[in-house]
Structures are given as structure tokens and as C-alpha cells.
């Protein structure tokens, strides 16, 4: 379910499978999924004194400050305007998450910056917020997980968030994979994108270049020039791999192409790679011919299975 659908109430909440997805509940607190607290423009209700805890309370919009260096960098202004219009008509149905500001002055936003920005546009003075007692590491973890579950981060933003959790808070790649419900190889492959030139990273960030294209460019002698050629000519990932092999005199041929006689269709293998990168889990396709076959999604934990179910059903935490 998209964030706009959540605010408009376009789809009724569905019961979550028991035993799955407890990782996020442990981070967010079960109070985050209690009955929604409605805030509407011009609401006259006075807020009760706010103290750190698990209850949803009304908090002054002006007392909230965004999280410095939060994972998400790009906000679609048109989508925020649309969400503000929805909030103006129906109120803010889903609480944001905040913590007491480190300097003791007001609150620091942990999750829900898009809703907070839209609420300001809608003219709300107070909004429902879950006030949590969080340290810096837990704050950044929640911000990262929430954005990933909503699929709001581009590949570079996600990779940068992983890098910060490793460098600043001592997380391992295995711990990060478990936190976000993806494979360790997905985390490792994303972080390799940070080795690309800034110009290539910018093309990934604005959606001009896919993650598959970007991965093919890692280590290329002139990655930025090739990236511009990809955008201009609309080259496929396989075409980029072939172009790089040609530039290197075929040095990477064995690493990219299947061995002779393997029987694997390179197009099927390309689809497997694309789905694996998109979902962050292992994907296998068995094609039997005649348009028939089987798609296998591999998971290493119940949290990963829960994530797959949410992606397939459109459900969000």
C-alpha cells in the first residue's frame, strides 16, 4: 500500500501473519500500529504534555526538526503536494515517529518526513507522533528500514545508509542484511556502487541509470563516459557488459557469459539478476519452453519471507 493510500484510507488494513515481521515491531514498538490518531487542519484539541514513551500523542509541528543525514535525500514535491491535499481533506491518519532532540529543544524526526512536510503544507499545527526513547544507532536504523519498506530510497541512498551504519555504528553486512530483510550479497553489491564516480552515482540517483547498469560499470576505465552513452542511446545491461568487454579486449568474457554448453539462456539469466537486485534475495528461473516455467524466490529467514509477502501483496508495515 502506498503512503498516499494510507493517508486517504483507500484500502482497509489487513491482518498480518502471526510470527512474521517482528523485527520492525521491535524497532517501532507495538504502539505504532494501534488505532490511528486523527489530526486535521485547525483542530482545536489541546495536546497533553509529551514525555518519551510508547503512546501516540499530538506534537507541535513547529517543535519537530528533521533528522540530519537521514537516508532519504530526494523528495518528490508533486507527491508531497498531493499528500498535503489529502491531509487537508481527511487529516493525517498515520503517526510519525520522533524522539526528544539531543539538545533537549523539541523533537527530532525519526520516520515520516514526507508526512511531516505535507502536514506543514496542509497548515496543521499539531500532528500525531509516536515519541520514542532512541539512541543514534536505533534512530538511523528505523529511518533506514522505514524508507526501504516503502521503497522510497534509490540505490545510492540505500548504499550510503548502509555505509553510515557500518562506519559510524559498527554494523556488519550480515547484521544489516538481517535488519532490512535482504541478502548479504544485496547489501555488499549496493555498497560497491559507492565506488563509482560521482557523475555515475548522480545518474543512478535521478533514475537515469538502473542498478544493473551501474553494477556493470564498476571498475570500468571510463565509467562516466559509458554511463552517458547508456542514457543517450538506451543501451541494455548486456550491451554495456559487451561494451566493457570489448574495451578490455575480452578480459571479462568468461566472468560475464555462461560457459559453452551450459544450456542457460542469457536473457533468462539477465532477468534473474534483475529480480535478485530488485528484491535483494536469491531468484531462480527454470524455463521449460513453450512459455512455461517456474520462478523460485529464496529466503534465509522468516523476516525475508515476510518482506517477500509484503512486496507481492502490496502490503506495507
From TrEMBL:
Entry superkingdom: Bacteria
UniProt entry tagged with the keyword DNA-binding: yes
Coiled-coil residue spans: none
Keyword rRNA processing: no
UniProt-annotated stretches for the region Disordered: 1-23
Pfam families documented for this protein: HTH_ParB (PF17762), ParB_C (PF23552), ParB_N (PF02195)
Keywords: Chromosome partition, DNA-binding
Residue ranges of every copy of the ParB-like N-terminal domain listed in the record: 57-148
InterPro entries in UniProt: Chromosome_partition/occlusion (IPR050336), HTH_ParB/Spo0J (IPR041468), ParB/RepB/Spo0J (IPR004437), ParB/Sulfiredoxin_sf (IPR036086), ParB_dimer_C (IPR057240), ParB_N (IPR003115)
PANTHER family for this protein: CHROMOSOME-PARTITIONING PROTEIN PARB-RELATED (PTHR33375:SF1)
Protein family (similarity comment): Belongs to the ParB family.
Role according to the record: Involved in chromosome partition. Localize to both poles of the predivisional cell following completion of DNA replication. Binds to the DNA origin of replication.
NCBIfam families documented for this protein: parB_part
Protein name per its UniProtKB record: ParB/RepB/Spo0J family partition protein
The organism of origin for this protein: Sphingopyxis soli
